Amino acid sequence: MATNTILPLTTLKRKMLALTSFYETSTTEPDNYGVTAGNFDGAGISWGAIQFNFGKIEQYNTLSPIWQDLINNNPAVTKGAFTKQTDYDLWRNLILRNNYTELKTFAKKITDPTSERKVKEPWKTYFMNLGRTLEAQDRQLQGAERYYKQAKMWKDEFGLWSRRGYALLFDISVQSGGIKPDTMNLVKADFQRLSPTLSREQLETEKMRIIANRRADAVDSEWRPSYRERKLAIANGSGNVYRGTLFMDTAKYDMILEPAFESDIYVPVH
User: Fold this and answer.
1) CA 20 → CA 63, 169, 232, distances in Å?
2) For residues 37 and 22, what is the distance between their CA atoms, to the nearest angstrom?
3) What is the structure's pLDDT at 270?
4) Mean pLDDT, to the nearest integer, of 236-245?
5) Residue 122: which residues within 8 A CB-CB, separation 6 or more?
6) Angle at 259 between CA 214 and CA 213, to 5 degrees
7) Is the preceding omega at residue 259 within 30 degrees of 0, hence cis?
8) Running DSSP on this structure, what letter comes out for residue 82?
9) 47: Cβ–Cβ under 8 A, 6 or more apart, which residues?
10) Which residue among 144, 180, 226, 248 is least enclosed by CB atoms within 10 Å?
11) For residues 256 and 1, is the Cβ–Cβ distance under 8 A?
12) What is residue 194's DSSP assignment?
């Protein structure tokens, strides 16, 4: 039974981000904010808690706006992440020019040829240093805001109330971007078949399992098993993911069956 303990909104968001970030980076705070991947997927550089990147096409560039803001608003912080002035000047000028072709060329140049999921030194260290700063962490939380908003819209539409439900939808938003109308309709149809005798907590869990499975069904078959494991581990509160190589427990992140917001507190009718 929920105790109606409400986390401050900033705390809730940061903990949700930490959960999804571990899936995205296999790293915990604060290093997850500085993890950098190379051009293994054609998105150029991927950096930070949820791997903001230059994008496979220019309109999907989520990384440049974050770095531009840090350069313009926190010049001492960004410069302090670098030990070599010429490297800082190169990076700063590149990001402020924001020429997409130049960005992708730079990403390819610093990608480790022996492992495209990594970047070469000293860039790996520079970007880790930057990500560990509070300013960079705050800006990444801001950069994730569109995912929080999308998850909140789905949460309201699906009638979920828990932190864990919100976390599941946030994870879907980050990893997939959206839920197609056909999948939405299947989810809602499945909801109609749920037993009216379920407790509030049981109903919440069953709804999350339905969302997890239906969204996984819509994923390309190559990635479907790992996608389903990841989402069901959140829906169930724990589970083995990545073909049993990792055990995840959402309670470590306080993503449990407690209300996400004050408005989610259940008040029984007498």
Assistant:
1) 18, 10, 13
2) 14
3) 61
4) 90
5) 83, 84, 87
6) 10
7) no
8) -
9) 34, 35, 36, 37, 53, 63, 127, 131
10) 180
11) no
12) S
